[in-house]
Amino acid sequence: MTSTPDDTLMTPWSRSLGLRVPVVNAPMGGAAGGRLAAAVSAAGGLGMIGMGSAGSVAALERELAAAGGATVGIGLVDWVRDRETGLLETAIAAEPRLLSVSFGSDFSWVPAVQDAGILAVTQVYDVPGAHRAQEAGIDVLVVRGSEGGGHGADRLALLPLLDAVLETATVPVLAAGGIGSGRTLAAVLAAGAAGAWLGTCLAAAEESLLPENARRAMLAADSTHTVVTTVFDEVLDLPWPPIYPARVLRNDVTDPWSRPEFDEARPSAEMLRAAMDTDDVTIAPVDAGQGVGLITHIEPAAAVIDRMCANAAELLRR
Ligand SMILES: Cc1cc2nc3c(=O)[nH]c(=O)nc-3n(C[C@H](O)[C@H](O)[C@H](O)COP(=O)(O)O)c2cc1C
Question: What does pTM read for this prediction?
Answer without folding.
Answer: 0.96
